């Protein structure tokens, strides 16, 4: 019996040790993604014949100019030319060019990612009808697209709410990419959600909805976007979100791992619990400036909570505005590096630490610039308008990204993401809508409250709170820990309220800034009693000043945006130039040059006590602070100044 017990003990020890090693190995692998922090570029492959000499030429040019790799994006023929010669999609000839690219990239020390399809949303040319996307509002039907590699051939958009449909599609993609997965680890990429969200439906949706909410949503689904149906819309979104999370984003990441790759995703625009969506992928990605830089705090929070090192951004898209397909965006081909730096710095100050340029067209060696490159894109290439500053700018972004990868994210306050508010809000006010933006579920305009200025709050959600532990005065989730929770919302799910009450009764300090209401059709009398119980606790208040015992990391007037990483006993704080604060789409041309320099006097509250620091921002420059455990504050030399480029009068 003793021998048997000893054997069981040894087996358990081995299992625990193996589990620990596996976890450490996963962390090590995550830390190796984009390990040199150099910017990548999206590489537009327009449907055409792809030549090895051109591939090698462009990759070598990228290497020489400070890039870390590429993301290949397969799109339509130039100018929509239906007669252009090209290899068939996912054919052996097509794959040969992709495989060659991966081998050359590896030989040059460049990374090579792949958009997981031709353009987006994901679609397939022979997709069975049962796997196609569906909406119960016929007037919104958008189930085919022709702007793909095989243009004008129509491709059916997959049902993004069906894991079975995704796997059918993924099997085809993986067959085409099977050899390209070899060599260095590649990322597979999905862009922002560009699938119809109104009245979205799939097999089993109605039954799952009735099981969860007790009534049939199908007869009123077309009314959900009208005033008076906010509660039903909330219930609908709660079910839709689960389909998006667990029938699309999770299978997408699982498929990447199955192929020895990793997932990178822009979950922006997805009708889902965005924080959880970003936590499900290996590299959460934002985009700017079609999404304004404040949005980056959502994927950055997700990365920190999930123990991910990298937060990437599709960057410089539609810098000065957007025009529909067939025309160029304003000032396209004449972008100012100083304006681009404003955007990059705003992203860094909201948690981004890996830049993806948007982007570079495939060009033939020895020919001039491809003037018909992607219409929403800054032009990257040997003929870039800003080519004389490109390498230095890349080195600058690399340096900041490296510092913003050190250690782990610093945070002190957990801030509840107002998901219920977004789902109960349904549509944005007209002033906030854009041609591609209509719903509050996108959470584009969500900011931390002003009374948390100087702290570095991270967004949390119901999932995080329910899986967190409060012990020894600290709320812990993964590698992150918080001394207090702030809930500043108009609506709160009753299950989340129960969790907050539980944590508060255990001793967690909670700021309940306002009295929320319960969303959804089915109300409970328990909601009000739970709220009253919560507010009766001594460690709960509506006033942050009564609950937040710790001082903010940074104190001062008119603080610039910042992001902080903690590496052992040292803090690295990136302070964005005040001109990079609250950037709005689109930028004015030359907006960065309106900055004449500024000064801020701040206090950095270190473990050794408060330290007075004067920030001298030179025009169009940001600052990096290094703070040690003795309270010493140093400035890191970022060593880059963007220069104005003379612009032809007819540039726009």
Average pLDDT over all residues: 93
Major β-sheet strand ordering = 1-2-3-8-10-11-12-13
Residues in β-strands, percent? 15-25%
The largest β sheet comes out as: 8 strands, parallel, barrel
Which spans have pLDDT < 50 for at least 5 consecutive residues? 1-23
Can you put this structure into words, describing what you see?
This protein has 652 residues and is of the alpha/beta class. The protein is built from 15 helices and 29 strands. It has an 8-stranded parallel β-barrel, surrounded by 6 helices. A 5-stranded antiparallel beta sheet has the order 14-24-25-28-29, with no helix packed on it. Strands 16-15-20-21-22 form a 5-stranded parallel beta sheet. 46% of the residues are buried. The N terminus is likely disordered.
């Amino acid at each position: 019996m003793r021998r048997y017990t000893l054997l069981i003990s040894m087996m358990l020890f081995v299992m625990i040790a193996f589990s620990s090693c596996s976890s450490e190995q996963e962390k090590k692998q995550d830390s190796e993604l984009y390990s040199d922090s150099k910017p990548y570029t999206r590489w537009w492959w327009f449907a055409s014949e792809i030549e090895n000499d051109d591939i090698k030429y462009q990759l070598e040019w990228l290497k020489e100019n400070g890039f870390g790799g590429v993301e290949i994006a397969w799109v339509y023929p130039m100018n929509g030319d239906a007669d252009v010669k090209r290899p068939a999609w996912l054919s052996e000839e097509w794959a040969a060019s992709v495989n060659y690219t991966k081998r050359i990239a590896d030989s040059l020390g460049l990374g090579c990612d792949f958009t997981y399809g031709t353009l987006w949303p994901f679609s397939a040319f022979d997709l069975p009808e049962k796997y196609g996307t569906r909406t119960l509002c016929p007037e919104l039907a958008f189930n085919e697209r022709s702007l793909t590699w095989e243009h004008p051939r129509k491709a059916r958009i997959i049902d993004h709410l069906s894991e079975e449909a995704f796997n059918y599609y993924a099997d085809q993609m993986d067959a085409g990419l099977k050899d390209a997965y070899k060599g260095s680890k590649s990322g597979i990429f999905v862009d922002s959600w560009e699938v119809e969200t109104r009245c979205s439906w799939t097999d089993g949706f109605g039954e799952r909805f009735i099981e969860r909410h007790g009534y049939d949503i199908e007869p009123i689904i077309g009314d959900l976007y009208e005033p008076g149906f906010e509660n039903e819309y909330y219930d609908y979104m709660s079910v839709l979100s689960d389909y998006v999370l667990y029938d699309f984003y999770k299978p997408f990441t699982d498929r990447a791992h199955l192929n020895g790759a990793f997932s990178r995703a822009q979950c922006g625009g997805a009708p889902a619990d965005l924080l959880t969506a970003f936590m499900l992928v290996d590299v959460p990605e934002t985009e700017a400036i079609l999404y304004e830089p404040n949005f980056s705090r959502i994927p950055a929070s997700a990365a920190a909570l999930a123990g991910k090192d990298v937060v990437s951004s599709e960057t410089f898209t539609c810098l000065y505005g957007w025009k529909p397909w067939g025309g160029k965006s304003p000032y396209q081909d004449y972008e100012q590096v100083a304006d681009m730096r404003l955007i990059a710095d705003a992203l860094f100050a909201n948690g981004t630490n890996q830049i993806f340029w948007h982007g570079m067209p495939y060009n033939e060696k020895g020919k001039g610039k491809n003037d018909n490159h992607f219409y929403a894109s800054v032009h990257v290439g040997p003929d870039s308008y800003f080519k004389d500053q490109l390498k230095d700018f890349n080195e600058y972004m690399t340096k900041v990204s490296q510092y913003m990868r050190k250690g782990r994210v610093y945070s002190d306050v957990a801030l509840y993401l107002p998901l219920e508010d977004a789902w109960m809000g349904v549509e944005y006010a007209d002033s906030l809508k854009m041609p591609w933006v209509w719903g509050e579920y996108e959470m584009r305009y969500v900011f931390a409250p002003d009374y948390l200025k100087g702290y570095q709050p991270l967004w949390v959600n119901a999932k995080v709170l329910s899986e967190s532990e409060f012990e020894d005065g600290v709320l812990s989730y993964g590698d992150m820990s918080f001394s207090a929770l702030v809930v500043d919302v108009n609506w709160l799910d009753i299950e989340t309220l129960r969790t907050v009450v539980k944590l508060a009764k255990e001793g967690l300090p909670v700021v309940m800034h306002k009295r929320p209401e319960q969303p959804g059709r089915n109300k409970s009398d328990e909601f009000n009693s739970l709220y009253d119980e919560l507010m009766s606790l001594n460690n709960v208040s509506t006033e942050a000043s009564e609950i937040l015992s710790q001082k903010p990391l940074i104190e001062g007037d008119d603080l610039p945006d910042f992001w902080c990483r903690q590496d052992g006993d040292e803090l690295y704080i990136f302070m964005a130039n005040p001109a990079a604060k609250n950037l709005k789409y689109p930028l004015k041309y030359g907006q960065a040059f309106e900055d004449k320099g500024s000064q801020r006097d701040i206090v950095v509250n270190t473990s050794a006590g408060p330290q007075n620091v004067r920030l001298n921002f030179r025009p169009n420059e940001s600052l990096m602070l290094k703070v040690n455990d003795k309270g010493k504050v140093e400035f890191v030399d970022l060593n880059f100044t963007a220069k104005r480029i003379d612009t032809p009068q007819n540039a726009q």
